[in-house]
Structures are given as structure tokens and as C-alpha cells.
Amino acid sequence: xxxxxxxxxxxxxxxAPAATLQGALxxxxxxxxxxxxxxxILLVGDPERIREGLDAxxxxxxxxxxxxxxxxxxGDSPAVALRxxxxxxIAGCVAAIREGQASAMVSMGNTGACVGAAxxxxxxxxxxxxxxxxxxxxxxxxxxxxLDMGANIAPKPQHLxxxxxxxxxxxxDVLGVESPRxxxxxxxxxxxxxxxxxxxxxxxxxxxxxxxVGNIEGGLLFRDAADVVxxxxxxxxxxxxxxxxxxxxxxxxxxxxxxxHEAGWVGEALANLRKNIDYSEYxxxxxxxxxxxxxxxxxxxxxxxxxxxxxxxxxxxxxNVNGHIVEGLAAVR
Amino acid sequence: xxxxxxxxxxxxxxxAPAATLQGALxxxxxxxxxxxxxxxILLVGDPERIREGLDAxxxxxxxxxxxxxxxxxxGDSPAVALRxxxxxxIAGCVAAIREGQASAMVSMGNTGACVGAAxxxxxxxxxxxxxxxxxxxxxxxxxxxxLDMGANIAPKPQHLxxxxxxxxxxxxDVLGVESPRxxxxxxxxxxxxxxxxxxxxxxxxxxxxxxxVGNIEGGLLFRDAADVVxxxxxxxxxxxxxxxxxxxxxxxxxxxxxxxHEAGWVGEALANLRKNIDYSEYxxxxxxxxxxxxxxxxxxxxxxxxxxxxxxxxxxxxxNVNGHIVEGLAAVR
Lengths: 333, 333
Description:
The structure is a homodimer. The first copy, chain A, contains eleven helices and eleven strands. Chain A is of the alpha/beta class. Chain A has an eleven-stranded mixed sheet with strand order 3-2-1-4-11-10-5-6-9-7-8, sandwiched between helices. In chain A, helix 6 packs across helix 7. At the A-B interface, helix 8 and helix 9 of A face helix 8 and helix 9 of B.
């Protein structure tokens, strides 16, 4: 059905187009947890490279292609790239949503360019002041969704309050948490802690109809203290990049220690560890608040992550997250 | 010599007073890297518990004691505790510096109370607008000093600029880095990135005489991109607490994986790992900018960390970090 079709930025990400095409094929091959067919995915990018890529992977199962002649590279400045590359695959995904050809998009490309293109090209949902990037991290089975991860680095209290509403809606609709606990990232637990921005936001969140559990300190982020943690895009971005690097650093250390030994179980132990600290299983970040479903994955995504991102986009559309965000915000106005 | 004597808050920290007394004894037993004698350490706390504690540890090598009848607990609200417990061991350490009985203090107690008591009781150094907490983290031999870690959650550009000067002075004087590279924690490398606060700070740091290497993203914090990283106290506090918890979490994961196996080298591998990700080896955080040398260690500190903190305080005094901070700030005014 065209209504829930997902536009896939085939050209985005470090492994593109091979990894993205493999991901698309994997998504339609797997029947669980999502049930996508070739008709549900719209491939956006260079038609020739897409056809070559699909041939190399065993043939085209019947994907539709939307041509896009340009590629925004990971290192490009988002603002410059969006201006100089109007026919990029990212712009093509956004146009596909705007024109009703798709209702969601998935890109493993330049995050800033995706946010910029989607915000400008789709506009925000009714009642939404600013879009925010939500990332779900899972540690040992405990999932926490944090937003904003960098779309809005100098938010106002009302923006943060709306992130609480949007994050809770997403977590309830897509992750199935009935009454998501919403926390505010802060330097102490008391309502009087933090900057003026946070004190005012604390008041707004306390007064709303959310299940607000108050301030959450950095050290409690992974201790199941909340399902949704609200923060400004500056802090969120720093935290996300730091965690990614720190996790990689720790794995290097573990690897160095274990490599010295020949035990047969070392490989398996490492794989288990990777799984437990892998926070890409949800497939990517969701840009909440724009008029469309936008999933942005990590540039390093391989086929599995691309497939998961397509699944996430599909679930978000099916659960009508955006409709519920509009309703939720209308109720608190 | 009384001039460089260090007041030790015997009652502060989870293991007090046993851990702090053991730390004091360890500091005078070890001749390297610092050379402290009993006369260099002033024990501040309940005299009876101190004498009992020393007896249990083999006797008093000749420490002087400054009595303090009250203890600020880790969970106490700093503002309330400072008002209601005027004779606390933390207040006693600050008074010892103010009265010339010591030139430095070390506490493993309530961080907020230490910052409050030292800032109010000692005042700031000449030319310093706001004190900041500097923490040196070492990952695999690469040290990075980050400030502010929470003393000043809503700084102005001039404060952040001064943190750059103070941090560089500390790293040069105490860690021996000749021309410390100073970076600014931000969401992107370009000078135009970040909030207005950061754009303005970038200009100030660029115009100074520091070895300023520009913006540092969260993911580069541990990649030896800078020796000193400047950030606001809100972000710094969130980052520090998050890293502590995340490191603990990762170690739990590694432990779980390895525990399943009986190999004899597992214990050694774990110990090595802990060492590589242990960022308490420097003994604690330095509160830079106050009129005295103030080292605040982790509440969980054991004897080794207490001894390291005493050594850090001793080196900071001997290197005249505070004198150099005053000179450095005078030069850029």
C-alpha cells in the first residue's frame, strides 16, 4: 500500500549502496518483527547503481525506484549541501513524502542534512513548536529513549515539554510501554536544581498529564529510572557521541585483554558483549515532530541495522505515532 | 612545613574514617611520587574517632588534629548542611586554609558542600570570576582534563575562557604538559557551531594566548584531541556521572561474560581492564579558582585514592598553580 510506503535513501551511509540494498532485501525476507514486501519500499538514488547493486545481490524483487542524481556525503556541511545538491537522495526521500508517494523515510546518511531537509520540506506537525531527535538506547534489556539528540541545541521550556509528550507517545505506540515514565536530565534530583530552562521545564512537565518522574541525573540514565529522558539538543548530542566513542573504547580494551588468550569461547563472549552494549538494535533515531515519519540511522549501519530501521519506520506509521502526537499536544494546550 | 600542609577531611566519604586514615598513612609511607611526612597532613574531624582509628591501624605517627564535631553526609543538601553544621569537618578544612594552618585541603565528602564552603570561605583568586571543577580522566595513558564539572551550571563566555586558562595552567604545572592543547566541547568542529555562549567563547579562546585547538565533539573526548576540554558545569556534570555509570555498567557486562568461564587468567584480565578504565588515579577533582588548593575525591575512594589525592594537593601547592593562574589571567586582561 502506497500510504505506508517507506522511502529508503539508498545512497546514504558508509556502506552505501550495497549495505542499504542488502538491508532492503533483508527487510522483505524477514517476516518478523515486521512484515514488509518489495512494494512497501521505495528506493531513492542513482537508478543505474541501484540496478547494478541489486543484480549483484541476486536480482530485483520488484522495488520501485525514485531517481536522485546527487549524494550528500557524511562530511558535507548540511546547510551548504542542501542548497548545492537539490537532487540529492535525501531530498528525494523528503519529496516522496511531501508528494504522497511515501509516508516515511529511512536514511543512514548525513544526520544534519536529514534533519534540515525534513524540517524544511515537511514542516512540523500541528501544534509542534520544534522537531527533536529521539534515540532509543538499550542496555541489558532496559530501554531508554532520549530526546533531543541535536536538532534543537538552544530549546525553550515549551520545546522540552513537547519533547516529553512526543517521546512518551513514541515509546507507548512503538515500544509498547503503557504509561512511559518521563524524566528530565539534570544535575540533581530536586526540582530546584539546574538552569532556569530546566526549572521552568520541570514545572511544565509536573503540570501536564504525563507520568513525570522528575529530574534524572546522568548516572541514572541506564538504571531504568525512566523510559523517556528529555534534554536539550546540545547535551543530548554530546552525550550520544561520547557514549558511542566510550563504548567503542571499552570494547577495544576488552578485546586487547582477551586477544592474549586462545580460549575458544572468547569469540562468543565478545559477540555477547557487543550485543549487550549495542544500541543500534532499534535501527536508528526518529525525528519526532515533523509531518512525516523520518528514521535516521548510523552511517556505519550494515544490512541488519538498515532492515531494523525500515521496521521501525513501518511500526511508527502503523501505530500512527504522529496522529497521537497531534492529539496529545492538542489536549495540553 | 606549615605553609604547604594539607588539611584532610577525615570524616568525608563512604569509607570514613578508616579509609581516609589509611590513605593518610599510605601517603606518608610511600615516598614516590610525593614525599609527605606526618607533619604535612592536618587531620580534621572527631578527635576521639581519629585516635581510635589510628590505634586500630597501628598507632599515630605524629599527625596534628583539628577538631570538628559535625559531619556533612553524602546525601545532605549542601546549602542546608553548610548552614546547619557550622562545625563540620569540611568547614574545618576550609577554616584551616583561611587561618593559614594549611594551604590545601582534601575531602572525599559531599562535593557540593566542598565547593560551597571553599567558594564562600576562601573567595576566588585575584582576577577569577568563577571557580570551576577540573577532573582529569585517563584512558589508556591518554589524559584529558575537563572543566567545569558542575560548579557553574550557567556560565558566561568569560567564565569559560578563564576555565581554559586555569585548566591549561594546572595541566602544565601538575601534569607536566608543556603547551597544553585546549579544546571547547561542542556539537561540531566549525567555529560557527553551538549555542551563542559557545560561539562567543570560541572567539575569546581563539584570541587568547592559549594553544586553542578549537571545538571538540563528544566522540573525540578520549581520542587525545586536547589536553584540556572546556565545558559548562551542566554538561560537564552530566557527562561525568554518565561516564562513571557507563563504565561500571560495562564492567558488569564483562564480568558476567567472563565469570562463566574458569580460565585462570580471567582475574588478571579484569584487573588490567579496571586499571585501563580507572579514572580516579589522579586522586580527585581540583576546584580551580579559589584562594587555596582544594581537592575533592570520590565518595567511594579507598586508601590508595586518598593517598593520591593528598599527593595531587601537594604537587599543586608545590608547583604554585594558583600563583600561575593569577599571573596568567592578569596577562590576558
